[in-house]
Amino acid sequence: MAAAESYPDDVKYHREHDWARIDGDEAVLGITWFAQDALGELVHFEAPTQGSHVTKDSAYGEVESVKAVSDVIAPLSGEVLEVNQAVLDAPETVNEDPYGAGWLVRIRLEDRAEVDDLLDLDAYKQVLAEQ
Amino acid sequence: MSHPYLGLTDDDRSAMLATIGVDSIDELFRDLPRAVRLGRELDLERALTEHELAAHLTELAGRNVDTTRELSFLGAGIYDHYVPAVVDAVLQRGELLTAYTPYQPEMSQGVLQAIFEYQTAICELTGMDVSNASGYDGTTVAADACFIAKHATGKARIVVTEATNPQIRQVVKTYAPGFGLEVVEVPHSDGTTDPDELRAAAEGAAAVIFQQPNMFGCLEPARELAAAASDAEALGIAHVDPLSLGVLEAPGAYGCAIALGEGQAAGNFPSYGGPHYGFLAARQGFIRRMPGRIVGETVDTAGRRGYVLTLQTREQHIRREKATSNITTNQTLLALGGLVYLTWLGPQGLRELGETCLALSAYAKQQLQERAGLELVFSEKTTFKEFAVRVGRNARDVVAAARERGVHPGYALGRDYEGLDDVLLVAVTEKRTPDEIDRLAEVLAEVARS
Amino acid sequence: MKLIYEKSQPGRRASLVPRHANLAAAELPDELRRRTPPRLPEVPEFELVRHFTELSTRNFGVDTGFYPLGSCTMKYNPRINERLVALPGFASLHPLQEEDGVQGALELEWRLQEILAEVTGLHAVSLQPAAGSQGELTGLMLVRAYFEDRGESDQRRKVVIPDTAHGTNPASVTMTGYELTHVKTDARGNIDVDDLRERVDEHTAALMLTNPSTLGLFDENIEQIAEIFHGAGALMYYDGANLNAVCGISRPGDMGFDIVHINLHKTFSQPHGGGGPGGGPVAVRDILEPFLPVPVVTRTAEGYALDFDRPRSIGKVRGYTGPFGVFVRSYAFMRTYGPRLREMSEAAVLNANYVLARLKNAYELPFDRLCMHEFVLSARNLKRDYGVTATDVAKRLMDYGFHPPTIYFPLIVPEALMIEPTESETKETLDAFCDAMLEIAREARESPELLKDAPHHRPVQRLDEVRAAKQPVVKFGFDAHPDLTADRRPVAADAPKGV
């Protein structure tokens, strides 16, 4: 059961439809409602390994539905501390709760300055309007 | 005058042009720039009637010396096994023959279930967990497996045994540069491959490919070769004869990651090289890396069991440049022929067929030694249905001389292997009889020199 | 319907295999001997025949009815071809037979090559590739070999494809080690020439293009496109998937293409077989001839021969000379038309334009032009107004006895319906299809649940593809049913058999 459309204001956004929730030196990353809606029910998350490095604006994994596959883009750079096992076990969690239980990875931030490049809610809504 | 494959009358055409709103068929092509129009008739011979066509092709076919016209012991990758009538009967069903890829599963449960059954049969034969719906042939599935190995291991070298069929090796080498892979060959030692040599070559490699039985008909020490690959942290890939798997152990049981092969022997006519099917099966962990189509079981909205193409995100129509392969059209109908054949044989039949091939080829070895005075080349090695004999002079010439006597005695290995110019590879399938083998020995006694 | 494994009983068999009791049994080393037999089905011959016959009744082919699957060219597969391919001189011929024993086969291949050269307007042909996508791969390998030979391969790393390209194109590009560059399509459905100019330079190796495109539209700027690529020293590759539109009317070689692959299972009637086999021969301009796969079929004063002495060849893409049985059928098809192949393409284009004319007001037409042998409509209006999708339209068409068109391709058209009638259809069939499509558009408005619940008359209703992807079950679970004789699972409500 997919969530109703929403874009919370406690996260920062990336124009490739990914979000980041900053938590001190760390950040939790995921994909937005728009992304999960475009893909349809997720069937698989190809995750990075714990300890690997993710680079801002590059793909760090893939999410798949029956009919599509999409890169997941890292909004920020850092080291992967944890991969969400709940999503690995039940990928549809992302559809049900894209900003909460459907988080994908937790990283240790490499460069806090990168946060300034992210979009706030209004800026992201602009991106959505252009789709 | 209308054509049998076209259905429009002059009246139809006029009505259709009127609906479209143009005056002539020519106008439909108005977007084509003048400069690219052919502007003349195609320079081709006139259309033939069905009867003329049949006469022409019968004449062409009549100039080929096939296995109904010559007693043949030619193998080397394509084999004269018996293809039963039930295969033709099933493959000629128009609903199967003239359908395409089952993208609309509700229209295609026949093909989808058949592929599911085929996938099951291949997994059973090879001892693996997942099979695809077929590849083009036994050579290209080896190339497919290299692609899997590269992405699974991140390494850039493939090791292949010299005792693997040269067609396979050549195709792998043709694909390798595009995959960014280097190919290294391990020479054979007296007809088989030394596991220590293989292990050494496989250090840092993505995969090792060996053939079982190999090109010389010899049985490789498959368990040790798979272990050698594993020791070197390379994927063990066995290229196997499907009809040997009733008597020979399955690659899944002796430690391989991937099993593949040429399906022709199981249910397809030789047909001058194709179309046939390549089979490819692997351990469960490789399922998302498999190239080609895979059929999965599911249920419909009424709870009925049904079949669909699954994990399509691997494939070109979704993943495009990141696809596990570019394959779209595969060899479904031929694989279906394989399924029908394996069902016709059953497990008993498959074992008996393997035993018969073993017994007849052992008899042939004996006869060629005793009656024709020929020497076996890899005499210490166990063989399956093919074996190599020395014929005392250029084997190609021996083939020519034997054929003048109505017998094709086998493949001249010197065509592909240096130093084996006087060696013949003799294949004995269940279609051969002891009398025919006696005839082979007689003829070789006449034309070979021991 | 049960699986063949569920009909299996130990001890039954469908065959007898020759045995020779008087011959010594051969010894196999213990460690190589099979321990556990494979669980192949054990059924008598008549059960085998019944099983596969029943499977065929649950399937729909061109022989069953109209099959307008865009981009696949589902035309009539002549029955004479099946009889011809079964002639022992073809079917029982070994590919490694000596040359003097295969002159008929080599002559057939040579003649097929000649016809393909004439139809494509090019000079040399290889029949080796086993399918269109393998033809593409071969074509790109030829491109690579050509530039390596000229010392330009490090410089030329990019292949340009339009955003309407079939998925095999980018996949083939990756498999050959090239980088992709996409070019946009303009409002008329042509390649955007201005966008193209920006993207083509001395780093470009080739263009891969289908013409007419996957939109079914002939690129009006093809001459300019050829100038841009040849001007930059790059090559032009033609994806022959849509050749059915232009045989005898326009030739890819004359359009400026240097390499062409042909889909024998599309244009030249090799039956699709539930997914294959196919044939993907390549035709090339003479500058590329030295790089063709080996062996090359040649004609000499003495007859026909295979030339293996090709030092600059890319190598081998498939065993032997290629899928010979496919050649027999395609050659036979071509000989049944001769120069009348032109009428084939004209009929294909007429049929497509007729269906387009009848349907374009009920569905959205993304590009308002005459089409070639296929066209793309969008069901976007139905989705917007009534909440029904291209999928729903496709499933409802099944209730009317038609195979659906291709849906959701090309990617640039939302809710795409790609319709290719082919030339082998009567006007009555086309009208029946159009009537059904118009009826479905009306149903979308008045009773959309008929579409949503479709299909109603197939052996199964809509299948749970999510479940199939999440929990892949890709072979029969023998271990879940250890004793087949005891298996008495309840059977769900039976669906009617047949179409």
How are the elements arranged and paired?
The complex is a heterotrimer of chains A (131), B (450) and C (499).
Chain A (H helix, E strand, L loop, with lengths): L11 E3 L3 E6 L2 E6 L1 H7 L2 E5 L6 E2 L4 E7 L3 E5 L4 E6 L1 H5 L3 H4 L8 E5 L11 H9 L2
Antiparallel strand pairs in A: 1-2, 2-3, 3-9, 4-6, 5-8, 6-7, 8-9
Chain B lengths: L9 H11 L4 H4 L21 H13 L8 E2 L12 H7 L2 H4 L11 H18 L3 E2 L8 H14 L3 E5 L4 H14 L2 E5 L8 H8 L4 E6 L9 H10 L3 E6 L17 E5 L15 E5 L12 E5 L5 E5 L6 H4 L12 H39 L4 E2 L9 E5 L4 H10 L2 E2 L2 E2 L10 E5 L6 H14 L3
Parallel strand pairs in B: 1-13, 3-4, 3-5, 5-6, 6-7
Antiparallel strand pairs in B: 2-8, 7-8, 9-10, 11-12, 12-15, 14-15
Chain C lengths: L44 H13 L21 H7 L2 H4 L11 H18 L3 E3 L5 H18 L8 E5 L5 H8 L3 E5 L9 H7 L4 E6 L12 H10 L3 E6 L11 H4 L3 E4 L19 E3 L11 E5 L2 E5 L16 H14 L3 H19 L15 E4 L1 H7 L3 H10 L6 E2 L8 E4 L7 H20 L2 H4 L12 H6 L29
Parallel strand pairs in C: 2-3, 2-4, 4-5, 5-6
Antiparallel strand pairs in C: 1-7, 6-7, 8-9, 10-12, 11-12
Helix pairs in contact in C: 2-10, 4-10, 5-6, 11-14
Question: Can you put this structure into words, describing what you see?
Answer:
The complex is a heterotrimer of chains A (131), B (450) and C (499). By secondary structure, chain A is α+β, with helices and mostly antiparallel strands. In chain A, the strands form 2 sheets. Chain A has a 6-stranded antiparallel beta sheet with strand order 1-2-3-9-8-5. Chain A has a 3-stranded antiparallel beta sheet with strand order 4-6-7. In chain A, a hairpin with a 3-residue loop joins strand 6 and strand 7 (69-73). Chain A is built from 4 helices and 9 strands. Chain B has 450 residues and is an alpha/beta fold. Helix content of chain B is 38%, strand content 14%. Chain B has 14 helices and 15 strands. Chain B has helices at residues 10-20, 25-28, 50-62, 85-91, 94-97, 109-126, 140-153, 166-179, 195-202, 222-231, 316-319, 332-370, 395-404, 434-447; strands spanning 71-72, 130-131, 157-161, 182-186, 207-212, 235-240, 258-262, 278-282, 295-299, 305-309, 375-376, 386-390, 407-408, 411-412, 423-427. In chain B, helix 4 packs antiparallel against helix 12 (332-370). With 499 residues, chain C is α/β, with parallel strands linked by helices. Chain C has helices at 45-57, 79-85, 88-91, 103-120, 132-149, 168-175, 193-199, 222-231, 252-255, 324-337, 341-359, 380-386, 390-399, 427-446, 449-452, 465-470; strands at residues 124-126, 158-162, 179-183, 204-209, 235-240, 259-262, 282-284, 296-300, 303-307, 375-378, 406-407, 416-419. Chain C has a 7-stranded mixed beta sheet, with helices on both faces. The interface between B and C is large, with 208 and 206 residues.
